[in-house]
Specification:
Number of helices: 11
Number of domains: 2
Order of helices and strands: HHHHHHHHHHH
CATH architecture of the largest domain: Up-down Bundle
Number of strands: 0
Radius of gyration: 20 Å
Distance between the termini: 29 Å
Strand content: under 5%
CATH superfamily of the largest domain: MFS general substrate transporter like domains
Largest sheet: none
Helix content: over 70%
Length: about 325
Amino acid sequence: MGVGLTTKYSILFYSIAYVLPLLSNNYIQICVSLFIVGVSSGFTDISVNALVSTLEKKENKNFMSASHGFFSLGGVIGAGLGSVLMLVFVDGLWHMVSVALLVILVNIILSKHYSSITEEDFIPPITESKFHYIGPLLGLAILAFITMFHEGAVEHWSNLYLYDVVGVSENMAGFGFIAFSLCMTLGRFLGDGISQRIGSLKIIQYGCALAFAAYFLIISSHLILAVIGFGIVGLGLSVIIPEIYRLAGKTEGVTASTGISVVSGIGYMGFLVGPVLLGLISNWTDLMGSYIFLTVLIGVAFVLTFYYLSRQYRKS
């Protein structure tokens, strides 16, 4: 279909899918509808990132990181706007329908600018299986797994860490995640300019190093230092996923959509596994032990950029 048309229809399907959970009448229907939401979310994620990667190559400009910045900004605005709309719409169904219609309308208006865009033609040999693509993308996929592992862990466990380990009150426990989210949004808007000057590989390395250092502030168990640490972790991680997608989209012999789908698929496994594994570690030791594990893990990612990615993407 081409990345443009795929993006147009995936956003339309995604918007409609989000209404389905509110039409569900029982547990099975809710599970099925949420599964459809998840599939459409992943499909949209790959389509949009492949479209951005294709545009970057065609126009020779960097804006992948800013695109992710708008994603993060949308989350902040959506949460705030949703809180206001909850006062307007008593029925959650009409709340979601109104949001879906808004997204569909905006998408239809804007799609004329991107729906005709296609990737460069690339036809792999018939003998090659889909698993053939994993080889050249393996380093990026592992790095994506570790990065999204951290994103999932911070999203689910930062509140409890501040409450349980640092000892803050419940109303202050969200400060860590707020700092993380704001700094991640800021970092993504700044990332493209830095990447254009120093290259994707170096900005990934600096991002890993920054996050590694920040975890020592978090495990200090001091409120101000921990909140600053969560913010710096968000700043460090903010540039990694956009740059990984950029590199995946430029991998030789692989189309942008294939490269991004492989890397993001393995990355999302990290997002799912991260909170669960961190919970298990905290049961075996405590939450402090979990965050020490995260520190070691981001250190592994940093080493990986030297021993694997530096050889494969030395010119990026």
